[in-house]
Amino acid sequence: MFSNTEIGIDLGTANILIYTKSKGIILNEPAVVALDTRTNAVVAVGNEAKNMIGKTPKNIVPVRPLKNGVIADFDSTTQMLTAFLKKVGKKSGLSMRKPSVVVCTPTGSTAVERRAIDNAIKSFGAKEVHLIEEPIAAAIGADLPVSEPQASMIVDIGGGTSEVGIISFGGVVTSRSVRVGGDHIDEEIIQYIKKNYNVLIGESTAEKIKIEIGYALINHPEQTMEVRGRDLVTGLPKVITIRSTEVQSAIREVLETILHAIHDTLENCPPELSGDIVDQGITITGGGALLHGMQDWLSGEIQVPVHIAPNPLESVAIGTGRSLKMIQKLQKAAK
Ligand code: ADP
Ligand code: MG
After folding, report:
1. 111-122 vs 74-92: helix axis angle to the nearest 10?
2. Cβ(154) to ligand 1 under 6 A?
3. For the residues of 291-331, what is the DSSP string, one character each?
């Protein structure tokens, strides 16, 4: 029980997941901290902090330390991770002393950003830290044949970033990372309602609208939803009714940016591997894969079969945890 625990961390922009082989996913919480601006102390993390968004006194502000897929705020990221590890240590009974940790990083991250992640993990006493590229973790978690001489293509649509990668023989052959994801869809919904209804809605409301009546760019039976916000003219609370077709047009640009990244990756795919992708199709994962109609829309646009990973919100964490074995094997082979 007190041996080294091996853990995989999905350091997402929206959600942080921690996975261990023996217990599976032992933590899944939003990547949010609540900061007291007077003292700069972290007063809450994860679920507790997210619930405070938009509801707290002025001196308590919620911060997303990983905005846009990179560590924007190093101190609060470290504090958040430490709090999460403490929590899972207590809850799972696993020893969190000097764990071996694998963390996946966005493909587009710079050396400085990667070092920041490495430091954040080491600062809570990890024995060893390995960083793996997100598309590989996503592909392993989605059960794709990553170590075989057969190309797989994975599209991970997260909160702050979307990653597209083609993988073969255990490596990333080509990839794209765009700093666009589900958060931007929420933002577009907020802007649309502000512009067209003069009503301000919060981030959580926008996310709810997206999840309930948001559709990728496909034909669908129109749905409506009642939404509460603040009238920008009178300053009073107001209820409006939003149609799914409105939401669809509001989020068009974000979806097209993601499509563009997929197109680009396909165009840059070595011809020898293109055949595999046409045969096997691509796999989408991350929370964005759950947007209504995403699969149909993408397969229509790129003319290649599109599959959804078994567990889009968890597959990267699972893949990150499973990759430890692969990394250790490679290290042994190299010795
Ligand atoms: P990250 O890896 O960046 O933390 P995730 O893969 O956890 O991101 O996905 C989070 C994003 O997915 C958020 O923007 C969230 O709103 C969105 N999301 C979650 N569930 C759904 C759903 N059912 N439909 C559409 N978007 C969803
Ligand atoms: Mg992710």
Report:
1. 40
2. no
3. SBTHHHHHHHHHSS-EEE-SSTTTHHHHHHHHHHHHHHHHH
Q: Contact 116/142 with Cβ under 8 angstroms?
A: no
55 annotated ligand binder:
no
Residue 119: enclosing H or E segment and its boundaries?
helix 111-122
Specify the residue with its C-alpha closest to ligand 1, atom 8. Answer: 158
287 labelled ligand-binding: yes
Beta partners for residue 100, in sequence order? 6, 128
Cβ of 183 below 6 Å from ligand 1: yes
Q: ∠ CA(85), CA(86), CA(91), 5° rounding? A: 95
Read off the pLDDT of residues 253-310 as tens digits, 9 standing for 90 and up.
999 999 999 999 999 999 989 999 999 999 999 999 999 999 999 999 999 999 999 9
- HSE toward the beta carbon, residue 20, CA cutoff 13 A: 19
15: Cβ below 6 Å to ligand 1? yes
Residue whose tokens read 């797989």: 152
Q: pLDDT tens digits, residue range 316-331?
A: 999 999 988 777 776 6
Asked if residue 331 lies in contact with residue 164, where contact means CB atoms within 8 angstroms, the answer is no
- Dihedral sign from CA coordinates of 179, 185, 190, 194: positive
